[in-house]
Task: structure prediction
Amino acid sequence: MKTISISNPTDELTALLDQVNDEAVIVRLADGREFLLSAVDDFDIEIARTRQNAKLMALLEERAQETRTIPLDEVKRRLGIAE
Result:
């Protein structure tokens, strides 16, 4: 993900970004390309960075494929929890 700082935004860009504060906006160019603009907060940034972590995503995918579970009684026994 790249961050671009804009020192002197045009009035048109400022108005567009004001709209984005209220809801996501799709910008469609004359050639048909589309871009989604959305306001972000710290959590949104953290999610985007996490998704870029290939090792973590591979681990999560591997764990999602696991089908073996441990019965609750076995967990309690291993932890020494009496019923």
In short: The chain has a mean pLDDT of 90. Residues 3 and 45 are 11 Å apart (CA to CA).
